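Morning run. Coffee first, then this:
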Amino acid sequence: MSLSESDTKVLAVGSGKGGVGKSTVSVNLAFALHGLGYRVGILDADVYGFSVPRLMGLVGEQPRAVDEHTILPLERDGVKMISTGSFVDDDVPIIWRGPLLVKVLDQFLGDVRWGSLDFLLLDLPPGTGDIPLSVMQRIPHSFLLLVTTPQASASHVAGRVARMAVEAGVRTLGVLENMSYFQCEHGERYYIFGQGETERLARELEVPVLGKIPLRIDVREKSDQGDPPVLTVPEVAREFEEIAIAVLDGIRLLEASKEEPGPEAPEPGH
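And here it is:
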């Protein structure tokens, strides 16, 4: 599949800093979109800090090469995935410089036989380094989903990624607030990381807040076990289905607002 020539919608999931749950969001959003009937793949572009294989329960499995220039991605419950972590041991550090990182990214985009996809999610490394910039430059018609926590330091640096996207011609769908609050067994909510910063960021960027995900113990436990919680925890499945629908609506709105009408968000399986 050549992304430049296909109808695949590319959704880059980015954050300003690490530790905000960007990869967990990427994986569960991918399965939520698949659950709505879409054909979905994930490209783990976080070469140094790859975690998608573990989150998807695919640690130790390696993609198969068809020939010298074609790789078949791994797959879990209908969602396809490629990651540097599938080619090295899980505890081996990646010590590469920028040019080599970009070369790996180009191989993942061009040499992986994704097949017909409706959506390809790119789990970006945090910040505004070589890989996020290279992705945006190579796929300028992609969409950016910003993930942040309510903490001021997280939302502030997330804004830098969105501003880089503007320079690259990438449209920001909106902001997703992760670890929004913790709800105890009595139903009381505790806003551990504060409130209001995500809304402030969204106003500055003139984009919507696409959802707020609570801090949940079962999400952490399931993710550590390589069992995407969206597949097994009904409440989490509902939360991510709502986010997936918000993403689809956002894509349709952005496409409709273009001066020259482009294709709408694809219907499932088309």
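The mean pLDDT is 87. Good start to the day.
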